Amino acid sequence: MVERLRDGGIDIERDEVFTAVYAGADWMKRRGIERVAPFVTEDALEDLKDFELVGGTAGERSAVPDAVLIGDVGELWTHTLLNEAFRYVMDGAQLVALQVGRYWHGPTGVEVDAGAYVAALEYATGQMATVCGKPNAEFFEAAVRSLEPAERRNGGTPEPTAIPSIAMVGDDLWADIDGAQRAGLQGWLVRTGKFSEDTLASSGIRPERVLDSVADLC
């Protein structure tokens, strides 16, 4: 993530990035979960190194996990992989989702996102997933809290009243804009990625700002 942001011209350090994988790992640690079946990309496995990883996209199915972690797997999803996650949950593993996006703009255009697979597992198992990333308000609140050390180093003292002055910039009306607004932040929509004028008009969601591109922030 840091490399991609830097390639885009954004000067950023690793400790300035707060991801859904980080939030999910923190949630599981606080609940004493030790063994996890990750259904995430290979790059995301690095942020789960504090757990015993079994099955899923980690490979080795050596034991029954305490939790199933669903993230962005994209084209790696197969019936076999989904069925593996289903069986773990049926055997007692907790169902944890990093996000429940409906769709995203991928290499081939608009593609189904992780939310569809999470919904399938919820329907099949009867267990509702714990969502650690967007649009969960706790994710946005944790991201805001992560800003505090940097602000304090610059002599500031962040207060809860400063939250409405923070904006979430994204192309997802539900996860980015509506999720941020429900958490008390502003939601700024960009007309890139999966943006659609028709979807915006019919959604009932009203962003505080609509930008042509994140470049407009500069």
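(the above was protein one; protein two follows)
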Amino acid sequence: EGIFRTGQILAGRRAPDHVRRQLYRWIRQGRIIQLRRQVYMLSDNRGGMKPHPFVIANFLKVGSYVSLQSALSHYGMIPEYVPVTTSVTTGRPETLDTKVGQFQFRHIAARLFGRFDELQVAPQQHAFVATPEKALLDLLYLTPHSDDMNYLRELRLTAPSTVDSQTFMLRLREAAEEMDTPKLKRAAEWLERIEL
């Protein structure tokens, strides 16, 4: 997928110092791009497959999955274009500005981490992405006052392209019960009154 970690190239028989010098030489020559410490990708002009932003996000922070507005946009549930790739993690929150885009990682409690699938996001590329209902609930959980009917209407939600509206609402209620927060249960009740 054109993306790799330092550990992967240090696993061979070459001296680590030699490998690191070559790596920095390739960065200066524009052959590879450093995304963060110890994470790199082949540059666009190197040919081959360009990694999908969701794949990059998963690689930038192990133990995360794409969610919130990015996943909602992926499923066709919100009309807006989302320029930042947003993910959730049980680790520390952070925003990374890279040469290939901005990636935001939001913290969520370990008990709420889950309900994601490995999806094909481009030919031969797979990434961990929240299910449609979990992406919405993650957004509502992390947004203050999101259990307000006006806020929910402003989202201009539509049912995901992957399932019908009735099935989606059933899954949303189940996920809200599983996450077991009063705010999400209230939001799920309000959403049932909105035609998706």
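Reviewer note on protein two: The chain has a mean pLDDT of 90.
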